[in-house]
Design brief:
- This protein is mainly alpha-helical and 112 residues long.
- It has one domain: Orthogonal Bundle (Multidrug-efflux Transporter Regulator, Chain: A, Domain 2).
- The protein has 4 helices and 3 strands; from the N terminus they run E-H-H-E-E-H-H.
- Strands 1-3-2 form a 3-stranded antiparallel β-sheet.
- Strand 2 and strand 3 form a beta hairpin.
- Helix 3 crosses helix 4.
- The chain is globular and about 50 Å long.
């Protein structure tokens, strides 16, 4: 079977593919499953559920959880850390949109 048609190979570069079980995600990040559940309850990440009801996490979600963990390790409460990470993401999205709008208006990339 060619590599590009092997099951799951198309997801290797997909940051949103839910490839990690809760246990594996926690091990990769060096955190507890309870922390992953806490950031899920806070609404920061919403893992996909398998048919059996098990949580599955993507690499993007792992990065988000890791950022929240950094803030918690600095003394920020979990709920506040989740809100901060959410606001950071919204600000990054706004900056991207602003750059795109400027490019369209000016016909060039403002970062160059």
């Amino acid at each position: 079977m060619p590599a590009e048609s092997a099951p799951g190979v198309g997801h290797l570069d997909d940051d949103d593919y839910p490839a990690y079980t809760m246990g594996r995600a926690a091990a990769v990040l060096g955190i507890t499953p309870a922390f992953l559940r806490a950031v899920g309850r806070a609404g920061l990440i919403d893992p996909l559920r398998s048919e059996g009801g098990h949580r599955r996490y993507s690499r993007r979600q792992l990065r988000i959880a890791a950022r929240a963990r950094e803030l918690v390790d600095q003394g920020t409460p979990v709920e506040a850390a989740c809100r901060i990470v959410s606001l950071e993401d919204q600000l990054a999205d706004a900056h991207r949109l602003n750059r795109e709008m400027r490019r369209k208006l000016n016909g060039r990339d403002p970062d160059t």
